[in-house]
Design a protein that fits this description.
about 200 residues; mainly alpha; two-stranded parallel ribbon; binds iron/sulfur cluster
Length: about 200
Amino acid sequence: MNKKIIINNNLDYQKFLKKLNFYKYMYLTDYNIENNIKKKELDIIIKALSIKKRKERIAYLYDEGAKYIDKYYSEDLCQFKYNKCFLQRKRNDGSKFGCCRYCKYVISNKGCPTSNISCKMIYCKEALKNIKKLKLSDIDFFKCFSIFQRIILKIDYCSTREQVINDLYYGPIYWLIRSIKKGIDVQIKSSKIKKGIE
Ligand code: SF4
Ligand code: SF4
């Protein structure tokens, strides 16, 4: 039999969020959750709880998170021109590609070819001069992720969307091995930049 949870106001919603740890370990149980406050984040949690395949659920939450962050930072905070952010143009020190300069995925004149939540959350304080920094904990539906997954979402820079989803799915050992390889790639790119090869 379906269990019914009715959310009629913000207090119900906050109580529901507090119990989310319990609900998310009950993915296989059928819940009928009624969202009477028309909150988009709650709709996302309800849909995530209904996705039984773990990897699909992770990908869904990941993509919704990326959309949420893009919407929050809708303004062009880094103001790239000719591959340089506004700070690099101001410093005029020859560096380019902003915070992406050591990443092997960045594409000249196009920027990032993928969707990386860790990178989307990182801005220097000059870029954040007129906007409050968004924290992962501000995104309610990220509470559907485990603590370890939320740590990965914070620090998995220089990785493609698919790689991050795999890290979230396969867990700590997989992530650690991949991070070592990624660290080597970053070192290689950084020494090429120092030698003026890139
Ligand atoms: S966050 Fe700051 S340093 Fe990084 S690309 Fe944007 S303006 Fe440049
Ligand atoms: S993955 Fe991150 S560091 Fe690499 S290009 Fe994209 S935003 Fe930049």
